[in-house]
């Protein structure tokens, strides 16, 4: 059985669509948060806590966190492959930066759903 090797890897179209989709999610989330600050006369801890007590806001925030991670992964891959010519150095940088992005999502999950 012959497998198409291209199907086992990311391709440019998938990266393009992923970047655009995550950018839309992040733009919508930014507008949502900005709108919240503009229409809320005084943002206190209680108001902020009440906003994030809503399950839909938690899910939207989680979607934004995952979008940041995907957007970061693709963007870092593009930048590192363009500017870091040493494959070993690029692999080490990618590992640490991807691990950092994963840690941000993990902390976001803990903050959103752990408390």
TrEMBL record:
Binding site for heme: 71
Obligatory cofactor(s): heme
A Gene Ontology biological process term: cytochrome complex assembly
Pathway: Carbohydrate metabolism; tricarboxylic acid cycle
Gene Ontology CC terms, in alphabetical order: plasma membrane
Cellular compartments annotated: Cell inner membrane
CDD domains noted in UniProt: SQR_TypeC_SdhD (cd03494)
Residues spanning the membrane: 21-39, 51-70, 91-113
Gene3D superfamilies: Fumarate reductase/succinate dehydrogenase, transmembrane subunit
Cofactor note text: The heme is bound between the two transmembrane subunits.
Record keywords, A-Z: Cell inner membrane, Cell membrane, Electron transport, Heme, Iron, Membrane, Metal-binding, Transmembrane, Transmembrane helix, Transport, Tricarboxylic acid cycle
Residues given in the record as a ubiquinone binding sites: 83
Membrane protein topology class: Multi-pass membrane protein
GO terms for MF: electron transfer activity; heme binding; metal ion binding
Function text: Membrane-anchoring subunit of succinate dehydrogenase (SDH).
Protein name: Succinate dehydrogenase hydrophobic membrane anchor subunit
Organism: Rheinheimera lutimaris
Taxonomic classification: Bacteria, Pseudomonadati, Pseudomonadota, Gammaproteobacteria, Chromatiales
